[in-house]
């Protein structure tokens, strides 16, 4: 059954610092996704640990080194956390963003158009890969991530003018 879902998107420090937030956000809005929560935040290491390991299992899946370089990259500046709502929003956002490795992302995706680094290069340099966006992997992960980044009071319900065309 097709459903309307919420998904978490993080505009990472490289997106904020490069001034790409508006251009990337426009892509999400153009396909009919609706912003239901947003804020700029500079989380501490504990917040990122819960996000990347307790929810995302990054250390478990990819090792402590991958977590450490990602954490170093993420604490370089604030992020913009956002919850987007739409029909099958999790899969739609992941399709728009492209694969995690920018080098592998096709032109037309966010990562394919605005980044290019490979995992090999990032590993050789001992740094996290600046891939612009975090997007929830599946609806269950999205629910946990949203609850971690936002309170219920920060999520808004409203009807957007374009909903009759995109739902």
Topology record:
Elements: E1 4-11, H1 13-18, H2 21-30, E2 34-41, H3 45-55, H4 58-62, H5 64-74, E3 79-87, H6 89-97, H7 110-114, H8 119-125, E4 133-135, H9 139-149, H10 163-166
Antiparallel strand pairs: 1-3, 1-4, 2-3
Helix pairs in contact: 3-9
What does this structure look like?
- The protein is of the alpha+beta class.
- It has a single domain, classed as Alpha-Beta Plaits, CATH 3.30.70.141.
- Helices cover 47% and strands 17% of the residues.
- A four-stranded antiparallel β-sheet has the order 2-3-1-4.
- Helix 3 packs antiparallel against helix 9.
- The longest helix is centred in the first third of the chain and has 11 residues.
- The mean pLDDT is 93.
Please state the overall shape, judged from the principal axes of the Cα atoms.
Answer: globular
CATH superfamily: Nucleoside diphosphate kinase-like domain
Low-confidence stretches: none
What is the tally of beta strands? 4
How many helices? The count is: 10
| Neighbour order of strands in the largest sheet | 2-3-1-4
Percentage of residues assigned to helices: 40-55%
Name of the CATH class = Alpha Beta
Strand content: 15-25%
């Amino acid at each position: 059954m097709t459903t309307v879902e919420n998904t978490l998107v993080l505009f990472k420090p490289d997106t904020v610092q490069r001034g790409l937030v508006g251009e990337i956000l426009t892509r999400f809005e153009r396909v009919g996704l609706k912003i239901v929560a947003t804020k700029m935040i500079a989380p501490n290491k504990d917040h990122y640990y819960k996000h990347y390991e307790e929810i995302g299992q990054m250390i478990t899946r990819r090792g402590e080194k991958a977590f450490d370089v990602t954490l170093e990259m993420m604490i370089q500046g604030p992020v913009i956390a956002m919850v987007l709502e739409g029909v099958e929003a999790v899969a739609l956002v992941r399709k728009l963003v492209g694969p995690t490795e920018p080098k592998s992302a096709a032109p037309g995706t966010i990562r394919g158009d605005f980044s290019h680094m490979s995992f090999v290069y990032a590993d050789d340099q001992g740094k996290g890969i600046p891939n612009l966006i975090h997007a929830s992997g599946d609806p269950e992960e999205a629910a946990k991530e949203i609850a971690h980044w936002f309170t219920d009071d920060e999520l808004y319900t409203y009807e957007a003018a374009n909903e009759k065309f995109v739902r």
